[in-house]
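Input record (one chain):
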Amino acid sequence: MRELKLFDGAPAACCSSLGATAMSEQDAETTASVFKALSDPARVRIVNLLANADDPVCVCDLTPELGLSQPTVSFHLKKLVQAGLLEREQRGVWAFYNVNREVLPRLGRIFELEGATA
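The corresponding structure, as predicted from the sequence alone:
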């Protein structure tokens, strides 16, 4: 698997619009990696739960809500952090997560079709 080198290391930070007149192979791979991160229903639920949380949430609080084991939830969280969709903060032995609100507007631009022909 090829690792993509981006300005901040997170694919969600620089996704290209699907309506871009010329999308490079790297742009397509970067955008696809964000879709891959959201391709699991548990990951979509995690993003939804965190988007509606007032404060960062501990993995221990997500586990019962999702009905999954702690290692499984941690695996999904890791994938979402690697994609740049979530931020992780270590507090002692516990990790707390929240939605990376800086990338959400960029993700919305993926579906802009300005410049694309109908």
